[in-house]
Write a structure and sequence with these properties.
The complex is a heterodimer of chains A (80) and B (329).
Chain A lengths: L1 E6 L4 H16 L4 E6 L2 H6 L7 E4 L2 E5 L5 H11 L1
Parallel strand pairs in A: 1-2
Antiparallel strand pairs in A: 1-3, 3-4
Chain B lengths: L30 H110 L2 H31 L8 E4 H12 L8 E4 L6 E4 L1 H17 L6 E9 L2 E8 L31 H11 L4 E6 L3 E9 L3
Parallel strand pairs in B: 2-4
Antiparallel strand pairs in B: 1-3, 4-5, 5-7, 6-7
Helix pairs in contact in B: 1-2, 2-5, 3-4, 4-5
The chains are: A alpha+beta (80), B alpha+beta (329).
Chain lengths: 80, 329
Amino acid sequence: MATISIIGIGDLQTRQLRENVAAALAIYPVNSEVVNVTEVSTIVASGVSQTPALLFDHEIIAEGVVPSIAEIIHLFKRHF
Amino acid sequence: MQSVFKTVPLFFFTKKDSPMDNFSNAPLHTEPEILRLNQELVRQNDLLEQMVDDRTEHLASLLNQILQSNKKMEMEIAERQRIERILREHEAEMQGALRTERELGELKSRFLSTASHEFRTPLSSILSSAEILDMYAQKAGNEKFIKHVIRIKSSVNQLTGILNDFLSISKLEEGKVKPHLEVFDFDTFCHETFDEIKGLRKKGQKFSHLYPTIGVVMTDKKLLKNILFNLVSNAIKYSSEGANIECNAQILGDKMSISIRDYGIGIPQQDQSHLFTNFFRASNAENIQGTGLGLAIVKRYVELLQGQILCKSTEGQGTEFVFTIQLKQ
């Protein structure tokens, strides 16, 4: 099973990213587990340089931006 | 975030709806009052949520700053490690080059030393034969013959001087020259040395000794003689006929300072910093014979006597070399 990690402490942008990922998954289902990483020490250790960040299987896909639903679906197709 | 306050607490229910009617002593509220309190509660809840959101945004912004600083530091560390790795590689290369350079230097010194030795033997034979020829020429009174013999002798002496310079620099570079201290009378020594050099003077050149009686000193006589010989012969070489060459000396505590001044062609400003480098010739001395080793040898001799040498010169006006040596008690 793939892991989709959404990294961010729950600010507006992070919440938006969570919503977009959920919407994208509803349109383009991927056999995956969505993990919300909110712990600061875990965020620092994750290697991202900005939040919110989107990771597929621990690989940084986007950071500091909120990809749209269409963009996330495109990323899903490319990655999974 | 799901609000916990959106459910109205039990005690805000009206008297007739309250299940705790018979058990509570709490004051009961009228319906409009409850409505107002509910609205107030919702407003307070919204306010709190807004505050939480603001704080979260602020924290997210701080977190991003920390993450960016971290990234920057990671990059700086990686860059430093890269530079350190390059430096280590270069250091290894440099050490290799230095080793090769040292080996080449030793090889060059050995070659110079061996070659000079090998040249000196046949030169001695040429010189002694020239001396014999000179004797015959003098007896025969043949002017042309005498002139050529003098030319041979002069060229051989010149070549011997060059080879001596080569040998001296080789010995110095190999660290074979060590000072041997002895006690001697400086004034007599100076007189003898200048007496030896006076044969090199051009027509009308004069030596002026501008120092008081120095007396007995303890240093390496041979090295000091070589230094003086080199500096004075340079002064002669680079001055015109009739020029004055001044020698000054003084004792300063446990040091002795000696200066040789000429009023010759001088040394161009841009050449002065390279004067003591092996084989360096000043740009205005290219037509005057020399190996460019004399001053390099002088500097090393002065250093062997724990002293320093300085040059003051103005092109076209003359040059003064001042050196100090450490006197032993």
